[in-house]
Amino acid sequence: MPTTLSSKQRLSIQRIQMPTQDAQPRSRNFKEVNLGLSQAAAIAEAQRCLLCRGRNCVAGCPVGVSIPEFIGALAEGDIPAAADILQQDNALPAVCGRVCPQETQCEAKCLRGIKGEPVAIGYLERFVADWSLTHSADLTSPVLRPASGKRVAVVGCGPSGLTLAGELVGKGHEITIFEALHDTGGVLRYGIPEFRLPKEIIDVEVERLVARGVKIECNVIIGKTLTLAELQQEFDAVYLGNGAGLPVLLDIPGENLSGVYAANEYLTRVNLMGAGQRADCATPIIQGKRVAVIGGGNTAMDCVRIARRLGADSAMIVYRREEDQMPARVEEIHHAQEEGVEFVMLAAPLEVVGDENDWVAALRCQKMVLGEADESGRRRPVALAGETFLLETDVVINALGTRANPLLTATAPELKLNQWGNILANEDGSTTLPGVFAGGDIVRGGATVILAMGDGKRAAASIDAYLQGLPSRLQKTG
Amino acid sequence: MFTVLRNELIAPRLHRILVLAPRIATARQAGQFVMVRASEGEERIPLTIGDADSAQGTITLFVQAIGAGTQKIVSLQPGSSLQDVAGPLGMPTEIETWGRVVCVGGGVGTAVLYPMAKALAAAGNSVTTIIGGRTKSLIILADELAEFCQAVRITTDDGSAGTKGFVTSELKSLIEAPDSRPSTVFAVGPVPMMRAVTELTRSYAIPTVVSLNPIMIDGTGMCGGCRVQIGGEAKFACVDGPEFDGHLVDFEGLAKRLRMYEKHEEACRLSGN
Ligand SMILES: Cc1cc2nc3c(=O)[nH]c(=O)nc-3n(C[C@H](O)[C@H](O)[C@H](O)COP(=O)(O)OP(=O)(O)OC[C@H]3O[C@@H](n4cnc5c(N)ncnc54)[C@H](O)[C@@H]3O)c2cc1C
Ligand SMILES: Cc1cc2nc3c(=O)[nH]c(=O)nc-3n(C[C@H](O)[C@H](O)[C@H](O)COP(=O)(O)OP(=O)(O)OC[C@H]3O[C@@H](n4cnc5c(N)ncnc54)[C@H](O)[C@@H]3O)c2cc1C
Ligand code: SF4
Ligand code: FES
To answer: In this structure, are A175 and A94 located in the same domain?
Structure first.
């Protein structure tokens, strides 16, 4: 293995392509699309990295993963070292390596991207993380601090809560995660489908946390089963990582016809309950032959790709702007296209039209054109007067987005919220209630996995500092 | 895991199940429900908390076995357990002292009604309950309701118990007698029954509360599947309800959405799944 390559040698290596399942078969199964790199391919890709001093990529990563360091170790074939470095910076690298929008984060900043293609940081992260999943014995165990006697309650078992729990259990605190649903993972479980993020990965990560002493209690809805006030009494600190699970409705006629889903319902039925995926699953799903999905984000892409897999002959994205303005990840759009998803662009839904039995029959859409740029710099879609058309369809899925769910916050009036119902939190995660911290989508609105994790990591540091200032629980109660 | 402590058949296909769920037993108020998943792979089924004993840490569920999911729940023997019980969900019944109230229950709706009626009576209301069903064996909880109700009246379609006819005619006679006219009506049952009750009370301008049973998945406001139209506005029954002002409910829309999975359920029954 050549460990020291010249810059010229490094520059001559082509960026690796991610091997994928063929588009035709995969558009009808739920198995993972991206197959992962072989060890040889990963090492070759790692050798493309120039290990530049500027570390631009690190600045592009919301949690500042030591990218050149882990890639450098990998380039030398030292996978355990790469895994150790990665593990220190990122609690869920196997997840991030799959779902992070690297093209707008680390890889967007990569020096090699200026003249050619950036290093495939995401693929490498995934390779190293997947190796770790099966080689936990070869990893250096983090040094654990002795038990502090302090107890922390975490609300929500999504990426934010899981990250925070991992950080704080390592600092010797006793952690209990309360989750409203019957299973762990938050959006990673109920939102992102199996073919993008196999649920086994979440299971392994969760088991690892449990093995380190984190307690997870599912079926506990804070604000209903227990109140925030009760948690504050029983625990020394509380972290709110309860996400942004409240669908925004279409608010157009026909929304309540049979066959119209909000994306969260569609995704929950399939991903959390297993509808259409597992033969032994009792939860039904309307499969649809012609499925129209409204929206252009990751959620819309996930829904439309599921619809294909459930057997739709025609699975369509209906979006009011143009393709290059869709907020979904480039990879998702690309994969959807390969899988035969149709893109109906510059179309805004006006009405869901029903048949004589009040089932969806069509979606009436307004034709749009792009006008002036708005504040975000994107050209604003404007209606073409009088130009509407009917799209024949039997299932309509609304993937317009989600907002903060008020279930918890409505029962904690002292907690300050912004006008959209998101919890107001400082940079360090602290809220208007002492000892109560928050982060992830409940603070940011629908954002990304890595931002939710970053919040968890920062809040963990703040909580740790906060707890060190508190008298030990033993003294408090005794 | 939530241990089943008792499971009795109290009417054809209707079971009274006592479950150990201490936190829910403590937090619960009348009108709230739980989401129950019998075991891995099963549906999440919404069930009203019929009663609770916070000292014992138990809740009572009245479950009518109508499909695969409820069948699975009622088949559990004491000592075994339900995999998931989450709650209490939904808004509690708004309990005030109105004076005279009439509660109307149809079919398994009577089980949903039972905790509401009990709380209303405990708050000092004089409660008359009307229970309706197709035939005598489907009249449930009459004795239990009689323990705290002023009167329990029964109607059956075939006249095998109580008065022959529908709950609405019984309700109408109560409304029209000056000494039994209720100030508020509560109605829980099949959609056509609740609809008929609200039509009747509308003409007398008597406020009427109904408890809706749309299809639910999470029960926490996350999925939007349980949306119902109330006064032209979309509401999520699991968090804004399940009780609503009956005069504002779009019952037709609710009835249609309840039939969305009919074909699937039929298939389940045929395959014995
Ligand atoms: C379909 C879809 C696809 C996505 N794809 C991507 C992607 O490719 N890349 C990316 O970076 N991001 C993606 N996102 C966004 C990303 O998933 C979220 O930003 C991230 O999951 C937020 O993490 P969180 O921990 O803050 O909240 P969540 O993941 O929402 O977790 C919150 C948890 O809290 C629980 N909870 C809520 N209320 C309570 C309560 N009162 N008591 C107890 N528990 C409660 C919820 O049940 C949930 O399990 C996607 C989102 C969706 C919906
Ligand atoms: C707030 C609420 C409280 C309820 N309380 C009780 C109760 O105390 N006792 C009781 O016996 N029943 C109660 N129900 C009704 C009960 O949830 C349904 O009978 C049950 O879900 C049917 O499931 P199944 O698999 O047995 O039957 P299926 O064969 O699947 O369905 C039979 C019918 O039940 C309805 N249904 C199906 N799935 C659901 C679902 N997930 N949520 C709601 N309705 C559904 C549909 O109209 C369907 O046509 C309540 C429903 C709600 C929404
Ligand atoms: S966590 Fe995300 S942004 Fe950071 S290095 Fe990994 S893939 Fe890039
Ligand atoms: S059941 Fe999902 S929002 Fe009500």
So the answer is: no
